[in-house]
Design a protein that fits this description.
The chain has 106 residues and is mainly alpha-helical. The protein has a domain of 69 residues. It has five helices and two strands, in the order ααββααα. It has a two-stranded antiparallel ribbon. β1 and β2 form a beta hairpin. It is elongated and about 80 Å long. The termini are far apart.
Length: 106
């Protein structure tokens, strides 16, 4: 009887430990967006050209992009284009891919 009780206690301990390990993995979900793809890092001014909510990656209507893009200085536009060409399309979210395609043509 004592052997069975010890075995059950050991099993319960292992199960609870593995459940704890699964819930304490860190903040990995904060670094990815829908679709588990990486987000490009942009300064606030550049991100606000394309996104109405940068953290949630909510795209503005494309009709607003040209006006907002014109508000950036040449250095910000060049950095955005460079970042887009440096980060391969597979490392971007769908929204960032659209943004980079648009920025590359403007």
């Amino acid at each position: 009887m004592l052997t069975k009780l010890t075995t059950i206690a050991a099993a319960a301990t292992l199960i609870s430990f593995s459940a704890f390990a699964q819930t304490s993995t860190g903040d990995a979900s904060e670094t990815t967006n829908a679709g588990d793809q990486a987000q490009m890092q942009m300064d606030d001014a550049t991100a606000n050209v394309f996104y109405s909510d940068v953290k949630a990656r909510t795209l503005r209507p494309e009709a607003e992009w040209s006006k907002n893009w014109a508000g950036l200085n040449d250095e910000q536009r060049a950095k955005m284009k460079s970042d887009c060409s440096t980060n391969g399309a597979t490392a971007r979210s769908e929204g960032d891919t659209r943004v980079c395609a648009w920025a590359g043509n403007n």
